[in-house]
Design brief:
- The complex is a heterodimer of chains A (about 575) and B (about 300).
- Chain A contains 16 helices and 26 strands.
- Chain A is α+β, with helices and mostly antiparallel strands.
- In chain A, helix 3 packs parallel to helix 4, helix 9 packs antiparallel against helix 11 and helix 15 runs antiparallel to helix 16.
- Chain A is globular, with a radius of gyration of 25 Å.
- In chain B, helix 2 crosses helix 9 and helix 3 runs antiparallel to helix 6.
- With about 300 residues, chain B is α+β, with helices and mostly antiparallel strands.
- A 4-stranded antiparallel β-sheet of chain B has the order 1-2-3-4.
- Chain B is elongated.
- Classes of the chains: A alpha+beta (about 575), B alpha+beta (about 300).
Chain lengths: ~575, ~300
């Protein structure tokens, strides 16, 4: 799946109010001074290995530099963060941090580390490692993709060591759910990486050619070997800091292998053939192919319901006065009329999209927060059915009229004709465009579909603004509204319909700006929810994006895998890899 | 049939029947479930609801040769019944209609593009082979440069320079020009080789000795020897170009939805779920086999004919 170049992957998100922030974790009776975390999953058996497919080879194994999904998938198994978002509950929980305290103004986080935690090479974790890690993430010369997230209110996070087990973080302004910032920020071993950081060779460290002995992480697995072009194998980390309820040290699996299988279809075939044990996130069409053999081939498929991804149609509302695009500027008179956008929304057959594009394995959307986002979805958003009549009356009110041959013209007699831009590599969105084209034909609109290669689409959307309407999808990352700041703020770079505005162009954009800024500094969940509900209502009313559907998360796993609990947050199937075991 | 696709196709290529995506082909029957014979063929719209086939019916409007509007179709069934002889695609669109309409673009574009690239090939190859020396060097190195160019990136640039939406006939011209212009270098090299050997033949040397002009030599003695290779090239290139259109569509330079082309009908087979679940999606591919065989046969026959003429 393709997602937009957002920073949302690791983005800070949601709630977890102060009460939760003060919580402590049940500590194990300390054995040899080791303070292990007890997991809640059913106890399993040790041993065995599983095989998983990756879309491509990881580009790096350096957690600070990794940007691509395959790299991140592998790194996630080898590293750990201070505070972690539980993919099942979508809430934060302590990880390497045993507990943390938030100051009354919400700006200071004091984190106490778990005692006796060791890296996978046996070295102990100390506050120095944490301080070093954040120093690297925040170093502008390193260009870490995570750096942006750690800059709050224009200032980078300040990190300070209090004692060997305590670290204090300070933010420039209160920031709701700041503990979500820590998710997926891997803590690095200072003893292995400090030299390369001092030499300025950090960007070459921990590449695929680095020998396994040079790595050490805090994740459930550590690197065993890498076969270029074929696979990367991880082995059990004997020092891992989690245990099950019986006191057995996790993980259960001895080994996990990632095979490089380049396309989804190829991954489906490998899974069907039994070469891989888990298939993470695949299309609804392939679900129906795999479904038939569930019983005979010994695997089980899971439909987890709507993801966080929302696909939408939007119009070019950019200020084109400085660009020579007179044709599009003329059509903007239609696009800017909210009744025109409402008419289009009313005329769309969202059920047909769900049925034909996703084989029914999707949820129609009228707002941008999907039902999968349990904590933040606003249930009050109306779900009107398709109504060509109400679309016609809205268009009539906006001065459009139908000619005798049924084609629609505006008040100046110009025929209503525009094109929808989609990425040709995303078959689902091309399909949606084809259905929308047919829906709008019934209103007398002549819609063309322009499908281009993905980078050309992004260039037109964000740089040249040479498009009329487009279909896009967003929201693959975290559930918290903060991960979408860039989309909803009128000054945001991913405010697709009119990006990077100096001043909000419309009153409703100004209101969204105000609400989003306010929720950012509001620490109380209920208050934040009210603010974000209002954002959702404005979006559903003014329709800068006309939401279409959210695909369900579909995963599959062999029957013999125990504790398999896929979640709708990335990494859908592997988030509890340390708890998986073989029956 | 392809030329009059509108008449032979029961539906418009874009008509969606959203209730029946991936419907299996309808079987035309004469015997009903009770074993009674009917003179008029019929199909089952649902498991026990039979609808008679009707001939010369009025249906979706279309244009003949882009000029005359018409509504007559060879066959159809009374509304609300639908008949899909080759089944439907994921939008519930009739595959037979799409195949017929798709042929209009693909056949003509393939033929013209192959014609264009082979003509360019003959022109460049003949000059380069016949004159040799520095002309040969320049043209052939130029051709190699052409082969080595990263076309994908050039096509990105071409697409970026074009307007957002490209109208139907422009797409067609674009396809012909882009495919034809990219493909000339290979036939040119082949033809140069043939010309190179032909010009050393005794009768050519003799004709030159009698004072024949270059143009006369080329036209009368040299080029006729390349017909064999020209025809084989044409026959090979046309199917290739029908598929090349898929790549161009991906880059936004080909036909887009809902317009069909043979390339796009075939490309849907590249998806695993189509391949494994809906066998009737192969039918267009099967229909293409005789079409391409006919091309080869025609090329063969032409070659034979030229041989006998030139002897």
């Amino acid at each position: 799946m393709e997602s937009f170049p957002l920073r949302q992957r690791l983005a800070a998100v949601v709630f977890v109010a102060l009460a939760c922030a003060l919580c402590c974790v049940r500590a194990t009776p300390a054995q040899s001074g080791e303070d292990r975390m007890v997991t809640t999953a059913a106890p399993g058996h040790s041993g065995g290995r599983i095989v998983v497919a990756l879309r491509s080879e990881p580009k790096t194994l350096n957690p600070v530099l990794a940007q691509d999904a395959p790299s991140r998938d592998v790194i996630r198994c080898m590293t750990a963060d201070l505070i972690h978002i539980n993919r099942e509950t979508q809430k934060t929980e302590p990880a390497l941090a045993k507990s943390w305290r938030v100051s009354r103004d919400g700006r200071q986080y004091t984190i106490r580390l778990r005692q006796g935690v060791r890296f996978s090479d046996g070295q102990a974790l100390t506050a120095d490692d944490v301080v070093f890690s954040f120093q690297v993430y925040l170093d502008e010369k390193i260009h870490s993709p995570q750096r942006d997230l750690l800059v709050v209110g224009g200032k980078p996070l300040a990190v300070e060591k209090i004692d060997a087990e305590t670290v204090r973080f300070e933010l420039a302004q209160p920031y709701a759910a700041a503990e979500r910032l820590f998710d997926s920020l891997a803590i690095l071993p200072k003893h292995l990486l400090e030299n390369s950081y001092r030499d300025g060779t950090f960007s070459q460290s921990w590449s695929l050619s680095t020998s396994p002995a040079q790595f050490a992480g805090l994740g459930p697995f550590r690197l065993k070997h890498y076969v270029p072009g074929e696979r990367i194998t991880l082995e059990r980390n004997p020092y891992y800091w989690k245990e099950d309820q019986k006191g057995n040290r996790l993980p259960y699996l001895d080994e996990i292998s990632f095979l490089f299988v380049p396309s989804e279809d190829a991954q489906v075939i490998r899974f069907q053939a039994g070469d891989t044990d888990i298939l993470s996130r695949f299309s609804a069409e392939n679900y129906s192919v795999l479904d038939k053999q569930q019983a005979t081939r010994g695997y089980k498929l899971y439909d987890l319901g709507p993801s966080l991804e929302y696909n939408f149609l939007f119009f070019n509302l950019n200020d084109l006065s400085s660009k020579s695009l007179p044709e599009i500027a003329k059509k903007q008179a239609w696009f800017q009329d909210v009744r025109f956008r409402q008419a289009i929304s009313a005329a769309l057959d969202r059920d047909a999209i769900v049925r034909l594009v996703y084989n029914g394995r999707a949820t129609p959307l009228w707002g941008h927060v999907t039902p999968g986002n349990k904590l933040w979805v606003d249930d009050k958003i109306a779900h009107p059915g398709r109504s060509v009549e109400s679309a016609r009356s809205l268009l009539k009110a906006a001065g459009f009229s139908a000619k005798s041959d049924g084609s629609l013209v505006d008040s100046h007699g110009n025929p209503v004709e525009f094109s929808i831009l989609t990425s040709s590599s995303n078959a689902q969105r091309v399909k949606m465009a084809t259905l929308i084209q047919d829906d709008l034909k019934q209103l007398g609109m002549n819609v063309h579909i322009v499908s281009l290669e993905f980078r050309a689409v992004v260039d037109r959307l964000l740089n040249t603004n040479d498009f009329e309407a487009a279909i896009m999808g967003l929201g693959g990352g975290d559930a918290d509204p903060n991960s979408e700041m860039n989309v909803w703020l009128s000054s945001g770079g991913t405010h697709l319909w009119h990006a990077n505005q100096g001043q909000p162009a419309t009153p409703w954009e100004a209101e969204i700006d105000r609400l989003m800024q306010q929720q950012l500094v509001t620490l109380d969940y209920a208050k934040r929810k009210r603010l974000y509900d209002r954002v959702q209502e404005i979006v559903a009313e003014d329709l800068p994006v006309i939401c279409l559907a959210s695909p369900n998360i579909l995963v599959g796993a062999k029957d013999r895998i125990g504790n398999f609990q896929p979640a709708i947050l990335d990494p859908y199937a592997l988030w509890n890899i340390e708890q998986l075991y073989i029956h | 049939m392809i030329l009059f696709a509108g008449f032979f196709a029961p539906y418009d290529y874009a008509t969606q029947d959203r209730e029946s995506p991936f419907a299996a082909p309808a079987r035309i029957r004469f015997m009903d479930q009770r074993g009674h014979f009917h003179l008029r063929p019929f199909v089952y719209a649902s498991s026990n609801h039979a609808v008679n086939m009707q001939f010369f019916v009025s249906g979706d409007s279309y244009k003949i040769a882009g000029l005359f509007a018409a509504r007559a179709h060879l066959f159809g069934v009374a509304n609300p019944g639908r008949v899909y002889l080759l089944g439907t695609d994921g939008y519930g669109r009739d595959q037979l209609s799409r195949f017929l309409y798709g042929g209009q673009i693909s056949l003509l574009a393939g033929l013209l593009a192959a014609g264009l690239s082979v003509s360019l090939g003959i022109f460049v190859g003949a000059i380069s082979g016949f004159y040799g020396g520095w002309i040969d060097e320049v043209l052939m190195r130029g051709g190699e440069l052409f082969l080595a160019l990263p076309w994908l990136y050039l096509l990105f640039a071409v697409r970026a320079a074009l307007p957002l939406h490209i109208a139907g006939w422009q797409v067609f011209l674009l396809l012909v020009v882009v495919i034809g212009a990219i493909g000339w270098a290979r036939p040119a090299r082949l033809i140069r080789g043939v010309v190179l050997s032909a010009k050393e033949r005794n009768f050519v040397v003799a004709a030159r000795g009698f004072g024949a002009s270059d143009l006369y030599l080329l036209r009368r003695h040299v080029l006729p020897q390349t017909y064999g290779i020209v025809l084989t090239q044409m026959a090979l290139l046309i199917p290739q170009y029908v598929l090349a259109e898929v790549t161009l569509t991906f880059l936004g330079l080909g036909v887009t939805e809902p317009m069909p082309s043979w390339g796009s009908l075939l490309s849907s087979l590249q998806q695993y779920y189509v391949l494994s679940s809906y066998w009737w999606m192969f039918l267009p591919a099967l229909l293409l086999i005789p079409v391409f065989l006919a091309y080869y046969a025609a090329a063969d026959a032409l070659q034979e004919r030229w041989k006998s003429v030139s002897l």
